[in-house]
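Sorry to interrupt, but I need a hand with the structure work. Leave the record below and I will have a look:
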Amino acid sequence: MNNILKNRFKMRKLVLLSTFSALAVVFRIFTFYVMGDTSRIVIYNIPIMLAGFIFGPAGGLGAALIADVSAIIYEPRWNPFFMIPASLWGLIPGIFKYFINIRDIRHLVIVEVLTHVLVTIINSFLIGSLFVHNLSWSFWAARLSLALPIMIIKMPIDIIILKVCIKRVIDPLVLEAKY
């Protein structure tokens, strides 16, 4: 009987992880470009961050990689180097899962800001080195002047959505796993 419950729990984890990956793929379609092709507002990070919070670094990384590889289907300009910043959306919350209380809004803000800043820096570096071939201070200043207002608007929205999802998704899962 115990083996059946373990298999059922593993199956639930797999289904939930694939659901987060599928949501990230669908949410990736709803990308809003602000100025040209380089500055955009994305919402696909939310299910990937939730996967990291629930399943740890391996689960968050797996959800991010599955979602990013699936983007090949509808993004003809997909570049494998951009899997690095996309994977950070799941990896960093997964690592912080073991050190913080994700139900505390202050800790959630720290993880969101740290992840957002790292992803923005790495994306800027990749765009500058792969496409523009310019890593001068003027390029970084221009990228930061575009990214900073977007981050200021997007991060509080992400935090509110994450807080609601944690209360409605993670908390019921934790209670169900105890019984």
User: Anything to note?
Assistant: The domain at 2-178 is CATH 1.10.1760.20 (Arp2/3 complex 21 kDa subunit ARPC3).
